[in-house]
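Sample entry as discussed:
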Amino acid sequence: MNDDQTLGDTTPTSAPVSPFHRPDVPDLSATPLVQLSIDEILDMAKLPERTVYICLRADLQAKDDAIIEELGTLVTARGELLVDPEASIGEQTALARAQQLADEQTQNRREMSAASVPFRFRGMSADDFAVFEKAHRPKSTDAADFTDYFTKLIARCCVAPAMTEEQVKKLRTRVGSKVFLELSNGAQNVNTGGGVDIPKSLSFSQVRTES
């Protein structure tokens, strides 16, 4: 690891943007806003879309979770060491261990990226979503009812790859509950969310390593 790398970089410096390293949120205040007529707005308006990246290698996801958990005991979310850099962790110093974990995370996330596939969701119009909710939203809190609801919602909103309800059900039998939850959230958020997504996971790539 060289001096130009940071604790927990998920991609090498020259690598293209990936699902695991998103660009900064655009500053809308930097661009003058022009008032449009309602006809112009109607011409420009598009249904919302979101993409969810699913790693098909659950073992790599588990390894990433373990690395993040251990890194969280050594560095802050800004990449600053929480302990004395020279403190011993086994046969390593805390700094050396943090750098080793960061390197392992970089390699692991490259493998995760290669094993990930995108699912693109397109939201319904406000009117169509209201009809869908009235027809399919469970009136009870039974988990099975909500599983059926989200199966229908995923099939309705996932446009790439397009899936039937039966195909979503088959996918459910091949992936864990976490993957189904991520797909469910993608289908739900494309209809009810707004704004720009901001990664909420821990990031250790903000501050350079001090050696």
Observations:
- Residues 46-192 form one domain.
